[in-house]
Design brief:
Elements lengths: L1 H17 L2 H13 L3 E5 L1 H16 L4 E3 L13 E5 L6 H12 L3 E6 L12 E4 L20 H22 L3 H7 L5
Parallel strand pairs: 1-2, 1-3, 3-4, 4-5
Helix pairs in contact: 1-5, 2-5, 3-5
Length: 183
């Protein structure tokens, strides 16, 4: 049984051995410069990017999740951050088109940088992990479907928060103070 844990951890480690840290830094700068950050992801990617939005809020950033009733209109000065591991899903493509026409900057996270979603991006952050776009046939991951990509997102987003916290000089105590007391 421990082989499964070690195998999953080794695969996650392999993703970060291949990620471009300078590209991660560029994505973090885009977030730091944004007036408001609006995020979107579908399925299990949505769960990961919602956690990222929560941490951005803890850092004191103006942030919203597509679909929430309090999501503001997006436009110039804002950043639309979309995770679309397989390179395209119809909802993401429609929202990317709206954000692009509204003048927002766009950051796309994907494992498929030549996918249709990337064409909308001002910057593409490639997360080199298996998604449902390449999970059939000769599998490369012991994890099912897009789980390797989704797990990598969790780790990546936490590292991005650490980088952003240092960049904008937010004390960890401030983050803690911004955490809800309604739990």
């Amino acid at each position: 049984m421990t082989d499964l844990y070690q195998g999953a951890l080794a695969e996650l480690s392999g993703v970060f051995d291949r990620i471009d840290d300078a590209a991660v830094d560029n994505a973090v700068r885009m977030i730091a410069e944004a007036r408001t950050v609006v995020v979107f992801g579908g399925g299990r990617e949505r769960l990961q990017i919602m956690g990222f939005a929560m941490r951005l809020f803890h850092l004191g950033r103006s942030v919203a999740v597509v679909g929430d009733m309090t999501t503001p209109a997006i436009g110039p000065g804002d950043l639309f951050v979309v995770t679309v591991g397989p390179g395209e899903i119809s909802t993401a493509l429609a929202l990317l088109d709206v954000a692009k026409k509204a003048g927002a900057r766009i950051l796309v996270l994907t494992a498929q940088p030549r996918g249709r979603a990337a064409a909308y991006a001002d910057f593409v952050l490639t997360v080199p992990a298996q998604t449902m776009a390449d999970d059939q046939g000769q599998k490369t991951s012991i994890l099912p479907m897009g789980s390797l990509y989704e797990g990598a997102l969790f780790v990546l987003f936490e590292v991005m928060i650490l980088k952003l916290r240092a960049m904008v000089d937010v004390d960890p105590a401030v983050m803690r103070a911004n955490h809800t007391n309604l739990e």
